[in-house]
Amino acid sequence: MSIQEAWEFFRWSILAILVAGATLPVIGAWLFVRRTSFHGLALPQFAASGVACGFMLLPWFVAQGMFGGLPLGEVAADTHTALNYHLSFAALGTFGGLSLLVLVGDRLGTEGARVAGAFAVASAITILCAHRSPLGEIFVHGILTGESLVVGIHEFETLAVVLLGGLGLLVWWHHDLVLVSMDSESAFVLGRPVKRIELLFMVVTGLSVSVGTMSVGPMILFGLLVLPPMGARPFARSMRGLLWKSAGFGTVGAMLGLFAAFRLDLPPSPCVVATSAVCALPGWLFAGWRSSTRSS
Predict the structure, then answer these.
(1) Angle in degrees, CA 56, 58, 59, rounded to 5
(2) CA distance linking residue 60 with residue 64, whole number of Å
(3) Residue 259 in contact with residue 206, Cβ under 8 Å?
(4) CB neighbours (10 Å) of residue 66?
(5) Which tens digit of pLDDT belongs to each residue from 241-287?
(6) CATH architecture of the domain covering 3-284
């Protein structure tokens, strides 16, 4: 498929992936600095478990008349109605998982162990709820695998507002967020609103993951939250540089992934993740080379 044809048929999907590529790595960079990068893997899975739970409970809400008397089939097929409903459950799963990880803190082993356990539980909940969905397990898993080429104008508008709005808040609170992330005790002594800033970051992260899961899918979220910041870190000499370079790595990875997907007739989600990994490869090699030269 040519790029012109792809733009004609999948305009909103392309724009959604590009917006995600430019913004999600910035959130991932903050997770990286705060030493919570593994949350970029666990939170999309929590969002997916919330969506699967929503599918399981959908007949009950339809029976209560919450969709204007529409039958189950029409509710599932109505993109705008289904988006609002499943966004609510995605947010419930995301914020529930995020709150759990924050409350547990350092009391249950290392961060890797905690996130691995949370990921396993969220994956099990996703499978069980999808299995109990009246719409069929295959249908639910098809939604959760992130068919990013079915994004419509409503999904794109929601994604753009949430991600760009969240990015604006992170830029506005940039200096305070750096101080809180590096040394929360010093930030408190200096009179910074530590709890308010922590809450702000949690809300921005949770909303971004929730909307991203229902728009571009968990796979792209996994890749864009984790890979670009890892590739940008060896080349960054400041926090601002890390944020800009992460956004650049993510944007280039998204563009190359879309190009490869349309030219080679491949699904876009794994292509974007693969090209993001390729873009991050120079950073990993440079970090390894610098580490070896320092030790020698």
Answers:
(1) 100
(2) 6
(3) no
(4) 14
(5) 888 899 999 999 999 999 998 888 888 888 999 999 998 888 777 76
(6) Orthogonal Bundle (1.10)
DSSP string, 254-270: HHHHHHHHHHHT--HHH
Checking 77-80 for CB contacts under 8 A at 24+ apart, the result is: 79/152, 79/154, 79/155, 80/154
Helix, strand, coil shares of the chain as percentages rounded to 5?
Answer: 85, 0, 15
Confidence grade of residue 205 (pLDDT, cut at 50, 70, 90):
confident
| Residue located via tokens 């799963």 | 93
CA distances from 135 to 1, 35, 64, 120, 247 (A): 32, 39, 18, 24, 38
Long-range contact pairs involving 34-38 (C-beta distance under 8 Å, separation at least 24): 34/181, 35/111, 36/101, 36/111, 37/225, 37/226, 37/229, 37/230, 38/111, 38/112, 38/115, 38/116
Query: By three-state DSSP, how is residue 280 classified?
Result: helix
DSSP 281: H
